[in-house]
């Protein structure tokens, strides 16, 4: 027997997080890697490293066809602890996530942007993790597993309007090479 999809409380009210209303209506149909670039310096194979991961997302909608397209971009930079000015490893990748949506009623541009910046990144993250792990090994470097994507609730402050971040940064240490 088919189970009825339950709607979240936030999606029903639509006041707190308009991205919830979008996520409640879409179905992921396809994920494609559309761009990938990598580079390492001769110093990449030696010593301990730290790394940064930055990401951003854009969204496009097509009401006539019932499509939502999210374009997440990911940037990986690893730095040698001995020399932190220039990265010793760079990996950049862009994906296309295609979603099907049947009803655009009541959805806003802000809701689609929130959806892209959270759900789009969350849905693409496993593909990004696998790509980084694969490329690092193919570069002849020790394997690296990017952590899972964690969703953290933004701190709430009375009377303060919070601005959404388009780019997030995570810093981690890589295993010894």
Outline the structure in words.
By secondary structure, the protein is of the alpha+beta class. The radius of gyration is 19 Å and the shape is elongated. Helix content is 23%, strand content 36%. It contains three helices and five strands, in the order H-H-E-E-E-E-H-E. It has a five-stranded antiparallel sheet with strand order 1-4-3-2-5. It has a single domain (17-146, 167-174), classed as SecB-like (Bacterial Protein-export protein SecB), CATH 3.10.420.10. The relative contact order is 0.23.
Mean pLDDT score, rounded?
Answer: 82
- What is the terminal-to-terminal distance? 52 Å
Number of domains: 1
Structural class: alpha+beta
CATH class: Alpha Beta
Computed CA radius of gyration, to the nearest angstrom: 19 Å
Helix content: 10-25%
Q: Per CATH, which architecture?
A: Roll
Topology:
Layout: H1 9-13, H2 18-23, E1 26-40, E2 49-62, E3 67-80, E4 89-101, H3 109-138, E5 168-174
Antiparallel strand pairs: 1-4, 2-3, 2-5, 3-4
Keywords:
alpha+beta, disordered N terminus, 5 strands, elongated
């Amino acid at each position: 027997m088919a189970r009825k999809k339950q709607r979240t409380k936030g999606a029903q009210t639509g006041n707190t997080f308009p991205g919830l209303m979008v996520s409640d209506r879409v179905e992921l149909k396809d994920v494609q890697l559309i761009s990938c670039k990598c580079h390492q310096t001769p110093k990449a194979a030696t010593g301990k490293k730290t790394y940064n991961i930055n990401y951003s997302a854009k969204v496009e909608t097509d009401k006539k066809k019932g499509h939502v397209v999210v374009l997440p971009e990911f940037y990986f930079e690893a730095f040698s602890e001995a020399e932190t000015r220039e990265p010793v490893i760079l990996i950049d990748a862009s994906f296309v996530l295609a979603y099907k949506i049947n009803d655009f009623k009541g959805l806003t541009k802000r809701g689609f942007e929130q959806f892209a910046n959270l759900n789009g990144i969350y849905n693409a993250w496993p593909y990004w993790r696998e790509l980084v792990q694969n490329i690092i090994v193919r570069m002849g470097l020790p394997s690296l597993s990017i952590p899972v994507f964690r969703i953290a609730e933004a701190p709430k402050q009375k009377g303060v309007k919070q601005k959404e971040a388009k780019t997030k940064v995570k810093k981690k240490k890589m295993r010894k090479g």
